[in-house]
Design brief:
Layout (H helix, E strand, L loop, with lengths): L2 E7 L3 H11 L10 E8 L3 H8 L6 E3 L2 H6 L4 E4 L6 H10 L3 E4 L7 H14 L3 E3 L7 H12 L5 E9 L16 H4 L4 H15 L6 E7 L4 E3 L5 E3 L5 E10 L2 E10 L8 E8 L2 E6 L5 E7 L3 E7 L19 H17 L11 H20 L3 E2 L4
Parallel strand pairs: 1-2, 1-4, 2-3, 4-5, 5-6, 7-12
Antiparallel strand pairs: 7-13, 8-11, 8-17, 9-10, 11-12, 13-14, 14-15, 15-16
Length: about 375
């Protein structure tokens, strides 16, 4: 069986998550390709130490050029947003396929340049967003596509965190515009919120955005304070065209959402039915039926329904590590030509579309206006 050699640039939080998924690839049932994480680059030696224990890794380096010169098929890049464009372009120039991290560049201009470089290079490029690979979101997509919902009335989708509520949490690159981007929390959480809507063809045509900077200074970790100048919370009231009607779609991306750890949700309401899913209650799929009485029905989902079956029992509940692995399986399956209609990773077109929406949201908030989103 073919083995695809993988490299990682940026071995932090997400680099390790990817390594862990590649390391238990055998959990996928009858998956027709093997993977081997062979090379890792990070500037931090301590981070690299962690990777030296992994049996497939033969190169750990602080020099990304050394990694790119090695025999690799795919490079997963998990770096701060200010580095996305340069590193993604170098990966493509080195003739490797790219699994990018969101937001696919620090801003719209960078995202467009990455998409163009991907097209020119002919390499396979996709962007990370794992939550929709859980069985719940997959069922939401099926419900919508079934037509059972009738005429769509409204859509709500979001991604909510709360760890930033602690004002003593030290600053890091994710809270500073120069590294994270002016789009702030939209760059962190926005692609996740938009992945399913965009895949369903719901491309916002206008946005009214409310952006908040709530905690504006944080400990700098050296005894002083540092400016925390990114948007903490973003509420985007958007409009989408569905079957000739304009439908409101609310998108929430929040780093300060009391009580929420990593809550991804989507709700779709129609005249005949509805469907709701939230990772807050990982197993629960809610579907609405309208008859003489109206009711929301809960279905407990298990592992069954992930796009790429694994050895895990059908009634066992999935989590973050599972959907991340499913996403990587989706990347490899699509690259190898056996996705066969299953859910695939965010495309460069979708990543760029999200950046158009965030760019318009910045203008909307600044001008207190409803901004059209033109995608060109
Ligand atoms: N898909 C998801 O759910 C998810 C979750 C969190 C973060 N992310 C995204 O992943 C990316 C990385 O985020 P993270 O949370 O892993 O960050 P992180 O800070 O934990 O890790 C980044 C790593 O990059 C290394 N690094 C920095 N500059 C480098 C350079 N020039 N060369 C090599 N290594 C360098 C750092 O030492 C660090 O180990 C971002 O794009 C972020 O938005 C995605």
């Amino acid at each position: 069986m073919k083995t695809i050699k993988i490299g990682i640039i940026g071995g932090g939080l997400m680099g390790k998550e990817a390594a862990s998924a590649f390391g238990r690839w055998f959990a996928l049932n009858d998956f027709p390709a093997q993977v081997a994480l062979t090379a890792v680059c990070d500037l931090n030696e301590k981070v690299l130490d962690w990777y030296t224990a992994l049996p497939t890794v033969t190169l750990v380096t602080t020099d990304y050029k050394e990694l790119l010169q090695s025999d690799l098929d795919v490079v997963y890049v998990a770096l701060p947003h200010n580095l996305h464009k340069d590193f993604y372009l170098e990966v493509l120039a080195a003739g490797k396929d790219l699994l990018a991290e969101k937001p696919f560049g620090i801003d719209l201009e960078a995202a467009l340049a990455i998409k163009e470089a991907g097209e020119k290079s002919g390499r396979f490029v996709r962007c990370s967003s794992e939550m929709p690979f859980l069985p719940g979101p997959q069922r939401v997509i099926q419900e919508v596509r079934s037509g059972r919902l009738g005429k769509i009335i409204e859509i709500k989708a979001g991604f909510l965190h709360s760890s930033d509520l602690d004002p003593n949490k030290p600053i890091n690159w994710k809270r500073q515009s120069q590294f994270c981007g002016e789009i702030g929390v939209m760059g962190d959480l926005g692609m996740h919120a938009l992945h399913v809507p965009l895949r369903l063809g719901w491309k916002p045509k206008a946005v009214y955005a409310y952006l908040q900077k709530i905690i504006e200074q944080r400990p700098d970790g050296k005894g002083g304070m540092a400016d925390c100048d990114t948007w903490n919370n973003a509420t985007l009231n958007t409009q989408v065209d569905i079957d000739g009607a304009t439908v409101p779609m609310l998108l929430e991306m929040k780093r300060l959402s009391p009580g929420e750890t990593n809550t991804w949700y989507i709700e779709v309401y129609g005249t005949e039915g509805g469907v709701k899913y939230s990772t807050k209650d990982t197993k629960a799929l809610w579907t609405f039926a309208r008859g003489e009485e109206q009711f929301w029905q809960r279905t407990d989902l298990g592992f069954k329904g992930v796009p790429f079956p694994t050895i895990t029992g059908g009634i066992f509940e999935p989590g973050f590590a599972d959907c991340f692995m499913q996403m990587l399986a989706g990347y490899i399956a699509e690259r190898e030509g056996f996705l066969n209609g299953r859910f695939g990773c965010v495309t460069p077109e979708e990543a760029v579309a999200s950046q158009y929406a965030f760019d318009a949201a910045l203008r909307s908030h600044k001008n207190s206006s409803v901004e059209p989103i033109t995608y060109s």
